[in-house]
Amino acid sequence: MKVLKLSTQLHKWIALVVGLQVLFWVGGGLVMTAIPIETVRGEHRAVEFQPGPLALAALPGPEEIARRAGVMPVRAELRTTPRGPVWTLTPAAGEPVTVSAATGRPFGPMSAGEASEFARRAYRGEADITEAVLLTTAPEETGRTGPLWRVDFADREKTSLYLSPDTGEVVTRRSGVWRIFDFFWRLHVMDWNDGEDFNHPLIIITTALTLSIVVSGFILLWIRISRDVKIARATRRTR
């Protein structure tokens, strides 16, 4: 009886404390499994960029590009972007520098019209563009730093494409579906700041308490089943 009473009290009070978070776990898990991850990522709205061949003979060599850019790189990457071929030069210390592969200089400022055109090429669908705005600071939802162009589309998901102001490349896609998913993810991992930390002390303690609910529940179930079996046997003997 002492074990039964202790298990009942433990089960009841801990369930009262963590019950709401368990509801968030189950509800959030349902939402996250019901929405295809491809939809969350906006892959159904994406058109893959098809780079053209690089005219290497017409471009300055990497040594000349590094000299013009004033960078001593430990790594250099040449690629095609919507604004043309670029070199990304990574120095031993500091941030990578992206310059035009034709001039060795950064591209000029990108206009709203250019940003809209590049976003339109990267978008799958017929929705109109509602806004193209240069953000001086990247929003938290992008997971990026520095300025970005955001181009919004009037589709049912409220898709937003974030573009590099240097190269016109789409660096990430966000939508209303992604924001719903992100909201439930943060509830799920109990990190309401940025949803990045899923092994912090609070979630570990809550998970341990939830485990105690499950264990005490099994103890209660076992005790009650055993009691019911004894009563059933005793009833048969008295007949």
Automatic annotation (TrEMBL):
<keyword id="KW-0812">Transmembrane</keyword>
<dbReference type="Pfam" id="PF03929">
    <property type="entry name" value="PepSY_TM"/>
</dbReference>
<protein>
    <submittedName>
        <fullName>PepSY domain-containing protein</fullName>
    </submittedName>
</protein>
<keyword id="KW-0472">Membrane</keyword>
<feature type="transmembrane region" description="Helical">
    <location>
        <begin position="202"/>
        <end position="223"/>
    </location>
</feature>
<dbReference type="InterPro" id="IPR005625">
    <property type="entry name" value="PepSY-ass_TM"/>
</dbReference>
<feature type="transmembrane region" description="Helical">
    <location>
        <begin position="12"/>
        <end position="35"/>
    </location>
</feature>
<keyword id="KW-1133">Transmembrane helix</keyword>
